[in-house]
Amino acid sequence: MRFLVLALALAMPLVGWLSNSGLLGPTNGEISGRYPTLIVAAGYAFAIWGPIFLLDVVFGIAQARVREPGTRLLRIRVLTAVGFALTSLWMVVFTLQGFWLALAIIWGSLWCLLGAAWLASQTRRHRRGPWWQWLPLSLHAGWVSLAVFLNVAQVVVAFRLLSVEQMLPWTLVLFALAGVLLLVMVVKLRGNPWYTLAGIWGLLGVHAKQQASVLAGAETAASVALVLAVLVALAAIAAAALGWREARLRRAG
User: Any stretches that span the bilayer, and where are they (predicted)?
Assistant: First the structure.
């Protein structure tokens, strides 16, 4: 399993390069341009995939060196193997414009990555595991936590499931759901800075994109994204402070 996880970690940047080189079909940017939404992020925001893939490879190498893992790392390996495989599969399917299948895949990858990030962040006495576990997995899970809603919006627009002239009402629902997921996970992960960073990065990317958009409701969407970014940051600070306080009380006891 440890070498499978490493192979799947190495596969993601390769598949990412293929899908964004145009060799498999339209790039993600081209597809996004065809189906504009009020919750899509600016192009620069997607550069976060570079650090994510790099850190996932670091995780893959580090975990492969552990020959006798405990139960927790074994579970993380299973979740990351599935999560990494689904991430690569999503890139291919989305490029081929199999939008419904891509949507199911990205939700599956989110489930696995959140589970892996949770396990990596929860160890004895609430101390986080090694940085090479919780940092890469938290960053990946944080970005996908927002990306799933971007994907939902593109499916809605691509198939005209709801109004594409007045997208703000249903986009606000997606913002609310994204905000709930991010805030709940930030609290449960005790203010995990890397999960928080990825979520805020994505929301600020949405803010930047919508500020420059001419779509109806874009100005409101930009403001909502900025407010959510601030709320996520405040929740992370509060959760981290609570975690530090509990740690001090345990040491004092």
Answer: 39-62, 74-93, 99-120, 141-162, 168-187, 194-212, 224-244
CA distances from 173 to 167, 180, 237 (A): 10, 11, 25
Residue type, 206: V
Whole-number Å distance between alpha carbons of 112 and 115: 5
**Segments of the chain with pLDDT less than 70:** 123-128, 245-253
Residue (of 146, 154, 209, 145) closest to 32 by Cα position:
154
Predicted confidence (pLDDT) per residue in 94-111, tens digit? 988 899 999 999 999 999
Residue 165, Cβ neighbours under 10 Å: how many?
7
Contact present, 118 and 79 (Cβ < 8 Å): no
pLDDT confidence of residue 130: 86
pLDDT 10s digits, 39-49? 999 989 999 99
Closest among 19, 81, 73 to 56, alpha carbons compared: 81
- Please tell me the distance from the alpha carbon of residue 141 to that of residue 53, in angstroms, as a whole number: 12
In angstroms, rounded to a whole number, what is the distance separating the alpha carbons of residues 117 and 192?
10
Prediction pTM value: 0.92
**Spatial contact of 137 and 113, defined as CB atoms under 8 Å apart:** yes
User: How far apart are the C-alpha atoms of 186 and 189, rounded to whole Å?
Assistant: 5
Rounded Cα distance between 228 and 237, Å, is 14
Helices (H), 96-217: 99-121, 131-158, 168-188, 193-211
Residues 20/28, Cβ–Cβ less than 8 Å: yes
Distance CA 131, CA 60 (A): 13
Distance of CA 100 to the CA centre of its chain: 19
